[in-house]
Structures are given as structure tokens and as C-alpha cells.
Amino acid sequence: MIDPHDQDNSILRRKTLDEIHEEIAQVYLSNGFPWVLGFSGGKDSTATLQLVWYALRRLPREKLSKHVYVVASDTLVEAPAIAARIDTSLRQMNEAAREAGLPLSAHKVVPEVDDRFWVNLIGRGYPAPYARFRWCTDRVKIKPNNRFIKEKVTEHGEVVVVLGVRKLESAVRKQIIELHKITGSRLSRHSLLPGAYVYTPIEDFTTKDVWDYLWLLPNPWGGDNESLRELYTSASGECPSFVIDHLTPSCGNTRFGCWVCTVVDRDRSMEAMAESGDDWMQPLIAFRDYLTSTQDPANKPEQRSLVRRNGQVWVKEEKLLYGPYAFDDKSFRQTLLRRLLQTQKQVRELGPDPHVTLIQPEELHAIRRIWRAEEGDWVDTLPQIYEQETGETLDWVRDDTSIFGVPEEKLLRETCELRGVPHKMVKLLLGVVQSYDGMYRRHNIYAEYDAILRRDWRSDEEILASIAQPRTDAREGDHE
Ligand code: SF4
Predict the structure, then answer these.
(1) Which residues fall within 8 angstroms of residue 370, CB to CB, at 6 or more apart?
(2) Does 257 contact ligand 1 (Cβ within 6 A)?
(3) Contact yes or no for 401/369 (Cβ under 8 A)
């Protein structure tokens, strides 16, 4: 068992700050690869960047030949205070590096639209994440960071990824740091990305070393290490934003995590901020709690589809495992969108930023496209919900995915009811026809028809009647 506060392990007792900075400077000089430093705004990555900054400052200008990219990822569902803090930090870093003549620039990465949290939760209906179905980390954290690293590998051939991880965080962390170490070097091979090496300057720091170091030297880019400490007093744990693989400790004990995170039971830092005067955060907490309540088995029948995204019903040991948030008759994805827009309105009215955006316009466009294409939403629900909740309209693309509208929906529904055919099935088949319209190569069209026809088109009543024990209280079995 590792004690992160163990003072016998303190590196600051064994080495002077000068020696530590000099070591880092020597690693910087040891090869020509640029550095990509992951910055989350937390204590470990702040200490790492501060160390690197002081190390670079001791080198003569002619030796500062390779670039240091500082990268912070913004999931676009960051807690607002943390998002603002990171934006400020990146701006300060760029200014301070320019003034000091350091080859360092700070960048923010965001997930691709299709990977964003709301696009998957409201668009595709992925249930609010929990420990065993954390579909979001890969999409909103790992992929954007790795995309940046890959771009730099393509540009420069090889890069060194500098991470603020420590052996004393856990036995597993220690094992991982040591596993890929290159003999005789401070670098490790990146376990997933060819052309990338990993350097962990604070790997031997205890938690106290990190705080002592941040306390001993002023923040060189003008950041506020004291307020960082205050941020840590109100919450437990940390969700590093620079997650590059599934082994990086992440997202569960959130402080720097997303405000929507349902992996933790409570977001103590937001609660503490709300209690200490930032009342405007209450609607965010209420929305997050609402998302958490969707994990309650008692609520699932009203909110979830019985059919999974692959079109099949999944019964395990005679228990039904629910599919995504429902779109059709239960309209739960629509409910979530409404509540999110209402929350945005409240936060704009109560909070310091009257233009705060909880869901980006491009995400609304993407959700609309998914609803139209995958759910056969001929009624085009999303622009209507948006207008009802905000009183505004966005520059919606007209007829981008369907030539069918409300009259056709009504007619088709009546006809299908008469014939006893699932009308959504016909809508999806017609959608395939339409998507191939004017295309020369249509060889995939039959596979797409086949996939639609093979879906389980039974009604909920028929499905439930066919299962001996239709309800489950287990969360297991959520799959994409
Ligand atoms: S903090 Fe929570 S919501 Fe955000 S990526 Fe991690 S697990 Fe997902």
C-alpha cells in the first residue's frame, strides 16, 4: 500500500530544486523531439509545467531549439469555473512564454462534434455514464488529446508526451510508469501511439512534494497557485483532463471533471461553490441530479427503449437489459433536450455570463441530423423544441436529410396502422432509398435494408409479454 504523503519518499528531501530543474533541462536537451505537455489545471499538471518552465529558463537561448506544446482538453461540458480558469491559464502561458522568449505555446483541444457528450447522450440516447459504462472518456478526453499528439508525430516524426503522473498515486500507476521505461533513459514508450514517448518529471513526487513545490516557487506564467489549493479544499479526487489511455486514473472522483458527470455520486466542488454564494450553479446541479436519476431502475421503463441500438432486444438470464434513452413514444431524448435548454436559460439569467452556452449550435445540428436519419424524425422535432424553449431559431439546414414532413408522417402512420406494419420501419427503409438517390454505386443498399428488416419490431407490450422476468435492477449490459 502506497502512502502518497510518506515523507520518507519525499524527493524534496533528497534533491534540491536546482538539481530537479537541471535534470529536466538535460532530458529536454537529450534529443530533438518536441514536447507535448498535458495540462488539466490540476495540481500535478501545474507542477509539471512549472518545473519544465523553470528548467527551460535556465538554458541559453541557442539551446531552446525544440518546441513545447502545452495542451488542455476542453470536453465542452467542463464545470464553468474550471473551463474559465483553464482559458485564462492558457492565455497567460502564451503571453508569458512570448515575453520570456520560450519556445512554448498553449493550445486547447475539443472533441469532434460526433464525439461530443450531448450528441451521444441526447442524439444517440447513450445513458448517463457510470463506472461500468463510461462511454464518454474515450470520446471527449482520450481521442482529442491523442489526435493532437498524432498530428505532432506526423509533423515532427517523433514527440515526447510530458505527463504529470506520479508513482505514488497508486501501485497500478507505479507499475504502468515502470512497465514501458526505456533502459537507461527517463523516457518510456507510449503504450498506444507509435512515435510518441512519455516523460513523467514528477513521477517520484509525493502529494506533499507537489504542494510544497507549488508553494516554494511563484507560478512563472502568472497563474495563481494559492487559489488552486482552495479549489482542492472543497472536493475530493481529481479527473485529469489530459487522459491519453484507459489506464490513466480518471473521472470518478471529480473536481476537474465534467459538470454533467454521473460517475460520481455528488459533485462536491460544484455544491461547495453553490453553497458559498454561486447560487447560479444550482440549476446545473439539479440537471446533473436529474441525469443521475435516470440510472434508477424504477425510472427506466418510462425513459429507455427496450430495443438496443443494434436493433435487438437483449435478455440475460431472463432479465431484460434496457437500450438507449427512448426517442419515439416515450420521447425521453426530447425531454432531456428541453430540460437542458431550460437549464441554460436559468444559468444565463442567474449567473455571471448571460451568454453561457451549455450545448453548442453545431451539437444541436448534429443531434437533429441523427434524429432525422436514425430515428426517422420526419416531424423535425429539434428546431421546434429549440424555438419553444429559447424563443430563437438557428440557421437550420433545410431538407438536409429528408424530403418527408408532417403530412407524410401522418399519412404513413395511418396507412401502417391499417396494414399492421411498424411505421418506423417503413420510414427507415424510405430513408435508405432516399440516401442512395442519384448514386451510381448502390451495392450496400440491400445490406442496409436487411439490417432494418432484421430489427426487432415488436411493440413494448409484445416484448415484455415474451419475457418471464421483464424488469432488471442491474445497470449492467449497457452497450453501444
Ligand atoms: S468526468 Fe465524467 S462525464 Fe466527463 S469524461 Fe469523465 S466520466 Fe465522462
Answers:
(1) 119, 123, 124
(2) yes
(3) yes
pLDDT computed for residue 6 by the predictor: 61
239 lines ligand 1 (CB under 6 A): yes
- Ligand 1, atom 4: closest residue by C-alpha: 258
Contact 40, 165 (CB under 8 A): no
Domain count for the chain, please give it. Answer: 2
Residue 220 in contact with ligand 1 by CB distance below 6 A: no
Q: What is the mean pLDDT of residues 152-159?
A: 95
The region that residue 445 occupies, defined by phi over 0 for left and psi between -120 and 50 for alpha, beta otherwise, is: alpha
Domain annotation covers residue 454: yes
The answer as to whether 332 is a domain residue is no
pLDDT tens, 394-452? 989 876 556 788 999 999 999 999 999 999 999 999 999 988 888 888 889 999 999 99
Residue 473 has pLDDT above 70, yes or no: no
pLDDT confidence of 336, banded at 50, 70, 90?
A: very high
Whether residue 90 has pLDDT greater than 80: yes
Q: Is residue 247 pLDDT above 70, yes or no?
A: no
> Looking at the domain assignment, is residue 431 inside a domain?
yes
- Tell me which residue has its CA closest to atom 5 in ligand 1: 137
Check if 292 has its Cβ closer than 6 Å to any atom of ligand 1. Answer: no
Rounded to an integer, the average pLDDT of 189-206 is: 91
CA distance 322 to 37: 41
Q: Which residue's CA is the nearest one to ligand 1's atom 1?
A: 257
Global pTM reads 0.86
Counting atoms of ligand 1 from 1, which one is nearest the CA of 264? 2
**Could you please report the per-residue DSSP string of 423-448?**
HHHHHHHHHHHHHTTT-S--TTHHHH
Residues 287, 340 contacting (CB under 8 angstroms): yes
Whether 204 and 322 map to the same domain: the answer is: no
Pair (38, 180) in one structural domain: yes
Which domain does 68 fall in, by range?
Answer: 7-120+128-233
Q: What is the pLDDT of residues 275-301, one digit of tens each?
A: 666 788 899 999 999 999 999 999 999
Show which of 215, 233, 251 is a domain's final residue. Answer: 233
